[in-house]
Amino acid sequence: MTPFIAEVLGTFLLILLGNGVVANAVLKDTKGHNGGWVMISFGWAIGVFAGVLVAQHVSGAHINPAVTIGLAIGGKFAWSAVPMYILAQMIGAMLGAFAVWLSYKDHYTATTDPDGILATFSTGPAIRNSGSNLMTEIIGTFVLVIAVFYMSSPNFATAEPGIPPGLGSIGALPVALIVLGVGLCLGGPTGYAINPARDLGPRITHAILPLKNKGNSDWGYSWIPVIGPVIGGALAALLYIGLS
Fold it and tell me: What is the rounded average pLDDT of the residues 224-234?
């Protein structure tokens, strides 16, 4: 398995389980209908765990462009590999969202709320305020990426010959717990995208799929869960450099 395929597969699993738990909680007549925010937060944490577990020994399991860019800024990842990783993450995210649709196809048909349908693909604000929403995404991603820096080994991925890439001491569970914490503690205002591919890839899938009652894909908001996480990851990297 190549790093590209590992990032595709890892991000696919992240979105399949993450958006899958949202679909279970939101869509009509599912077994988990109205399961609530705690259920959703735990589902996303398990999605992170699965994605990291599968990809970590091949690609370092970034599964998030904000992590990839942050690591490159911090000198832990080669800039030349950044576009390839982000492309893989976008492909994996789109495929993961498509697989959620296949799994819940009958429930999508039964659901008449377009906002609920969109929520199973991408994030949206509880109170729409671009400045506040952007700041929430910056802060949430900052927490994730700064934690990654301080729990990872110097050779996070694709670095020195003879040393296998991977997450080093971080493993799969600690990063999943960080995402769980961000979701429970900071996820209320925006749904905590904290990952540009997690939001943009499924939003594109939402726009493409022939969903009944799907409404629009809310492209006016879509820049916030892309730009916010990139800024948050960059700030975490700069703080790491400054404190090193």
Answer: 98
**What tens digit of pLDDT does each residue of 172-188 get?**
888 899 999 999 999 99
Residues making up the chain, counted from first to last? 244
Domain with 58 in it: 3-243
CA 183 to chain centre: 11
Give the domain CATH number at 170: 1.20.1080.10
Cα(69)–Cα(59) distance, rounded to whole angstroms? 14
pTM of the complete model: 0.92
- Neighbouring residues of 166: CB distance < 8 A, sequence distance ≥ 6: 56, 57, 60, 61, 153, 155, 156, 157
Domain count for the chain, please give it: 1
- Three-class DSSP category at 6: helix
pLDDT of residue 164: 52
Torsion of CA 167, 184, 229, 138, to 10 degrees: -120
Q: What is the 3-state secondary structure (H, E, C) of 81-128?
A: HHHHHHHHHHHHHHHHHHHHHHHCHHHHHHCCCHHHHHHCCCCCCCCC
67's CB contacts (< 8 A; 6+ apart) are 144, 145, 148, 195, 233
